[in-house]
């Protein structure tokens, strides 16, 4: 005959209760899993027509820069003043490193039209302003 109370089940139940309490109270929660924000053009002008590539760069030191693999691509119709974006945060991202969100506006042939960047801040939407590329 099997006992009604299994020690393994008691430990599992206790662990689930502790995890539920920690989650509900905010203990042990990390930064949000999504990165979101808006892209605008300088002087509150309409964002020109083209492809917008948004990606993350980490700056561990002044001499080393690493581009993370996570990238989102958006299309600008040339009619709106703000374009929103959202993507999931890479698992390789650490809280200790300095992270920039970089946006590049390119024509269909790949020619750079504008570029902008902003620091990634925890749990807040990021606003990136694009500035015209000078050649």
Q: Which short descriptors sum up this protein?
A:
about 140 residues; mainly beta; 7-stranded mixed β-sheet; about 15% helix
Explain this structure.
By secondary structure, this protein is mainly beta. It is 14% helix and 45% strand. It is built from one helix and seven strands. The chain has one helix at 7-25; strands at residues 34-41, 50-59, 65-76, 82-88, 98-106, 112-119, 126-132. Strands 3-2-5-6-7-1-4 form a seven-stranded mixed beta sheet, with no helix packed on it. A hairpin with a 5-residue loop joins strand 5 (98-106) and strand 6. Mean pLDDT is 78; it is low at 25-32.
* E-strand count: 7
Major β-sheet annotation: 7 strands, mixed
Instruction: Report strand order across the widest sheet.
Output: 3-2-5-6-7-1-4
Low-confidence stretches: 25-32
Element pattern in H and E? HEEEEEEE
Please report the number of helical segments: 1
What gross morphology would you assign? elongated
Mean pLDDT: 78
Rg measurement, Å: 22 Å
Quick overview of this protein structure:
This protein is mainly β and 135 residues long. It is 14% helix and 45% strand.
């Amino acid at each position: 005959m099997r006992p009604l109370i299994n020690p393994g089940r008691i430990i599992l139940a206790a662990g689930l209760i502790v995890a539920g309490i920690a989650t509900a109270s905010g203990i042990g929660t990390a930064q949000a899993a999504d990165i979101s924000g808006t892209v605008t053009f300088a002087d509150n002008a309409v964002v020109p027509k083209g492809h917008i590539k948004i990606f993350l760069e980490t700056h561990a030191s002044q001499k080393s820069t690493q581009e993370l693999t996570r990238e989102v691509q958006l299309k600008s119709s040339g009619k709106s003043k703000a374009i929103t974006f959202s993507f999931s945060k890479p698992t390789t991202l650490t809280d200790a490193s300095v992270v920039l969100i970089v946006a590049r506006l390119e024509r269909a042939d790949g020619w750079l039209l504008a570029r902008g960047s902003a620091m990634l801040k925890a749990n807040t939407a990021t606003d990136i302003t694009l500035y015209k590329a000078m050649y």
